[in-house]
Specification:
The protein is mainly alpha-helical. About 55% of the residues lie in helices and about 0% in strands. Helix 2 crosses helix 5 and helix 4 crosses helix 5.
């Protein structure tokens, strides 16, 4: 199990969003996670050698997806410009879902994350937890 500090923070912040599942018939937190997971699986599947080219302590798909879900919500909570209709063709669909959650439930999210530093959540970094293995270049004499 990955114990990287950013992964632990992302898990805690994601868990704190559980009440978003109980607002209406849609489990909003889990819907966002499902989108982020599908996007991460697609990204990893794009590389035929993902496991060979990344370190053994690389975040799992689930943890990377939680990091993205939390980071996207935090970005929009901090004033990042929300996507527009034309962006639908160019950015990941989870960005729209996260923006919609912030637009609709900002006050609830602020309360749920009252014990978190929003800037710290916004600063979560995928490349710190999904690490490319250093490639050794052959030495020619």
């Amino acid at each position: 199990m990955n114990t990287h500090p950013q992964i632990r923070l992302a898990r805690k912040a994601f868990d704190a969003l559980q009440p978003l599942n109980d607002i209406d018939w849609t489990h909003h937190r889990d819907e966002l996670l499902a989108m982020c997971k599908a996007e991460e699986k697609g990204h990893r599947g794009f590389m035929s050698d993902f496991n060979e080219s990344h370190t053994s302590d690389t975040a799992s798909v689930n943890d990377a997806a939680k990091l993205f879900a939390v980071k996207r919500i935090a970005e929009y909570m901090q004033g990042e410009e929300m996507p527009k209709g034309k962006d639908f063709l160019h950015i990941q669909k989870s960005c729209f879902y996260a923006a919609g959650l912030v637009d609709e439930y900002r006050d609830r999210i602020e309360k749920l994350w009252a014990d978190f530093d929003m800037q710290e959540l916004n600063a979560l970094n995928y490349t710190d937890v999904v690490k490319v293995r250093e490639v050794k270049q052959p030495v020619y004499a």
